[in-house]
Amino acid sequence: MGSSTAETESIKPPDGGWGWVVLSGCFVITGFSYAFPKAISVYFKELMHDFDCGYSDTAWISSIMLAMLYGSGPVSSIMVNRFGCRPVMLVGGLLASAGMIGASFTTNIIQLYVTAGVITGLGLALNFQPSLIMLGSYFDKRRPLANGLAAAGSPVFLSALSPLGQVLLDRFGWRGGFLIMGGLLLNCCTCGAVMRPLEGRARKTTGNGEANAQELKQMLPLKVGEENNNSVKTHKEKHKKKLLDFSVLRDKALAIYIIAKFIVVLGLFVPTILLVNYAKDQGVPDRSAAFLLSIIGFIDIFARPTCGVIAGFKWVRPRMPYFFSLALVFNGLTDVCSARSTDYWGLVIFCVFFGISYGMVGALQFEVLMGIVGTKGFSSALGLVLLIEAVAVLIGPPSAGRLVDAYKNYELIFYMAGGELIAAGLFLAVAFCCCIRRHKTKDSPDAEDPNIQNENNHASHDEDQMHQMSLKDG
């Protein structure tokens, strides 16, 4: 297992080829993972009626699903390191589907929390993180564009799932809608099947001379010291494959990113989760209310790839955290400025600007994380970041729903969500400017530091030493 890991890490990302198939699978997985918890909000009115519960009670369904998506990050990281991306994604697709199918037979809101929330959320988590890891292993120079295209899956699926959910609700009720949605989630298994690991490519492309040299080296007897050293290295590599790498938390830039993302997640999903119910309470017809999410999704479809292209520019990529801060402030201002929108066309205008700003946030968030920790530390860092964000996503939407139940005023939740996004954006920009002013991303090809440029000219056997030094400095 250790040797295969070393083989995989030594392969240069192809930036194309089968990577485009992996990108398409990541597109679908991202769509289900982020759009599904928001799209099921079209069923909330019926659930409130059938189970005699309030806004905050139904908001818990989406919150638990998102919390499992985030909170299961370390579990997903360990499983990926142990079994690989493809098996984990296949199991995740089955779990996600089983959760929604089971939810169609529930008789109370608690059972919905367990089935649609916990089981489906866990299944989505076991698909989402491995797909990002595979995407990062297949793309390097084109990674900002790849992340932007993959992130576009969220708005595309939101545009489709929200009106589809309303149609299913009208024709089959919420139980039939949940059952059909569960069947759709089986497509996650198909996406998992196309996630071909790069180590398979390594075996096929290895030259005959190199292969013979490796084989001869393995056949020669080892000295006692070498044998002990190799056994220790093998043990360490296996140990690393099974456990999370907590050393990434020593990176100041990562600590700043985690704090900012915690504040972001408190308010990021609140408007989209409660928007449909808000529109229905304002007298907007059911299908027109569900169409508001489609407007956000449609605008978001173009915002994410466009933002990914801009993020790939040479003058933007080294300043990615500041570009991300701008997106956060833009999203927060959209919430605050639209807090008093009560008529349908006012909500449409809000959805247009929210779609643009939300798309920018979605396209940049994981690119910033990859730039901070590098591709080798991305699996562990992503798992830990998602675990911390799970706490925030459990607090955000239910607390907003409780505000609505208590004060019967939706204006407050827009101010709350917008204020949190603005605070997070300002904190991220100021913290990076003051504390990480000379920080350069570990795997960015556009680093402008002359020392880094000189080090990049060394031979390949020196690059491993550089990576170890950067981890210690982090």
Automatic annotation (TrEMBL):
Keyword Oxidoreductase: no
Predominant subcellular localization, coarse grouping: membrane
Transmembrane segments: 20-40, 60-80, 87-106, 112-133, 145-164, 176-195, 254-276, 288-310, 322-341, 347-369, 381-400, 412-436
Membrane topology classification: Multi-pass membrane protein
Residue span(s) of domain Major facilitator superfamily (MFS) profile: 19-436
Compartments reported by the entry: Basolateral cell membrane
Keywords, in A-Z order: Cell membrane, Membrane, Symport, Transmembrane, Transmembrane helix, Transport
Entry's Gene Ontology cellular component terms: basolateral plasma membrane
Record has Transmembrane helix as a keyword: yes
Compositionally biased spans, kind Basic and acidic residues: 458-474
Region named Disordered: 441-474
InterPro entries (UniProt xref): MCT, MFS, MFS_dom, MFS_trans_sf, Proton-linked_MCT
Highest taxon listed in the record's lineage: Eukaryota
UniProt-recorded Gene Ontology molecular function terms: monocarboxylic acid transmembrane transporter activity; symporter activity
UniProt similarity note: Belongs to the major facilitator superfamily. Monocarboxylate porter (TC 2.A.1.13) family.
Protein name per the record: Monocarboxylate transporter 3
Gene label: slc16a8
